[in-house]
Design brief:
CATH class of the largest domain: Alpha Beta
Number of helices: 10
Number of domains: 2
Largest sheet: 5 strands, mixed
CATH architecture of the largest domain: 3-Layer(aba) Sandwich
Number of strands: 14
CATH topology of the largest domain: Aminopeptidase
Order of helices and strands: HHEEEHEHHHEHEEEHEEEEHEEH
Oligomer: single chain
Amino acid sequence: MIDADRLSSRIAELGRIGALPGGGCKRLALTPEDAEGRALVTGWFRELGLEIATDVIGNTWAIRPGKRDLPPVVMGSHIDTVATGGLYDGTLGVLAGLEVIESALEAGIETDHPLCVVFFTNEEGARFAPDMMGSGVAQGALDLEQMLASPGIDGTTVGEALDGIGARGPAPAGALKPAAYLELHIEQGPVLETEALQIGVVTGVQGISWTEFTVSGRSAHAGTTPMPLRHDAGHVAAGIAMEARAIARDFGPPQVATVGRLSLSPDLVNVVPESATFTVDLRHSDEDRLQQAEARLFAFAEEAARAEGCTVTRRSLARFEPVVFDAGRRGAGRAGR
């Protein structure tokens, strides 16, 4: 049995780093708060005598050797957060993995496979795009050099931020090949609570499409420019945001759409916006449906801009296809094996 009190205590201690006045915490990737969190968790790894390795993208692995020369069974997640993060997102997966290893050590349990716990870099994507960066590089799905050059919301690149907090390690990315990977994670939604369920088994991963739109129009005086003569970038942006919502409504579950970031220029009460930059996050568990949602949104954006005498450009911030988990493994999970 694990020590639930010890696990809860560690979650609370890590949650005090970057704590917000109204609850929750803010530890954006590769910030001083993230560095402090990394130091705390790595210290717990050292206390157990685990073998620690940090790779070139900052992923940190802690290994308890097994009885045989076999690939490790890996548990973990991330410890970076969004700007208004909770105590459990990511943290639970890392510290629960640590608790499993510590409990096994205390009980004298030896395993054939090594046991490993990992925390990945920039999984949230709140400071640097794309999200799931550290794990993506480790699995070869994302190019290391491109990710190191990725600029953050403050203009700092991932590589600069890694060096700034001393988080860039010597180990090559992807050198560790897991035999299996297990992640305990919060739902991040209301379904389990609504259905009065304690736990769910994940059957797949949503496809993700993050797009940044920039609408260019013409600034004008808000009081003296007639409506038909405006080239209002803000109006176009609002229309695209409403269309994203309509797509989610028309497609139905599990399609979702979110406009998470929006900025207007010159951002004045009495001036028609000359430009608008904003993001749209589309997600669906079916790749064909996700592509259909993208096509509809992109076509609408072009037409909305043209109708207002504006132009629109877009760039992809992240694009991941859906993943359906192996049915055999899910069946074993249902059977309790």
